[in-house]
Amino acid sequence: MDLFSSHNSRSSERSNEIKAQVAALLGLDEEATVMVTELACMEEGCPPVETIIAVFRPATVKLQFRLHRPISEITAHDIEEMCAEQVNSSSEKNHGNCCS
Predict the structure, then answer these.
(1) What is the pTM for the complete model shown?
(2) In CATH, what number is assigned to the domain containing residue 18?
(3) In total, how many domains does the chain have?
(4) Model confidence pLDDT, tens digit, residues 53-98
């Protein structure tokens, strides 16, 4: 197995693009960490490859997203939708807390 193949380089580049897009769309500061990991799943009923995107921020609950495809197949639109759902979910929770 060639760990330094061009596939790994492209995957790393795409991973960095995803991290930057997530950070921008969620308005993350420098204290936040975004991790993008592609995993193979051998369990029955599990997609063969999934990508996990995790966001860590100080004093805040970790966010974790699962996309059931490899990093190379994740589009900017996928990331936009994922982040929009998170923003909408957060604003509904915050709205509920301030008005109850």
Answers:
(1) 0.76
(2) 3.30.160
(3) 1
(4) 999 999 888 999 999 899 999 999 999 999 988 877 765 554 343 3
Query: 């308005």: which residue's tokens?
Result: 27
Per-residue H/E/C for the chain: CCCCCHHHHHHHHHHHHHHHHHHHHHCCCCCCEEEEEEEECCCCCCCCEEEEEEEECCCCCCEEEEECCCHHHCCHHHHHHHHHHHHHHHHHHHHHHHHC
| Residue type present at position 91 | S
List the beta strands (DSSP E) in 1-100.
33-40, 49-56, 63-67
CB 54 within 8 A of CB 28: no
pLDDT digits (tens, 9 = 90+) for 82-92: 998 887 776 55
